[in-house]
Amino acid sequence: MNCADVSTGTGANVRCQGKGRKERAIPLTTATATVIRHWLTERAGVPTAPLFCTRTGRRLSRDAIEHRLTAHHARAAIACGTLGSKKLSPHALRHTTAMTLLHAGVDTTVIALWLGHADTRSTDPYIHADMTIKERALAKTTPVESKAGRYHPADRLLAFLEGL
Fold it and tell me: pLDDT per residue over 118-127, tens digit each?
């Protein structure tokens, strides 16, 4: 990813090429945009240089990114033991982003666009995996006012039905 692909101003985003060579624009949070803005100033590189590079100045490969993620995961697991049993990958971070957006009430079509899915049905597994969404939907329903038990129709209703 080249620096020309990063915008840290209004509507901060990163443009990159994803799966299937699809062009994607991924929005950045204000905090992330600020960190990247500082990083760009600190490294004082040319605009066409990779945003994150290897020791030789080349852009990071997918393998290199996964290797760094694995290294940071191992270090974080020392401080937080429960992380040691978790499987972490760049794809897991995508799922985490999707679930965070879903919990925030973002519509699944927006999440599908954010993740670069061609079909909004690709986000269906997130909905099925999230019990809190189901609980929120249930909380919005009106409780039934009838008392529990078997229904017994009134004598007038039975008489009417028998008269049909």
Answer: 777 877 777 7
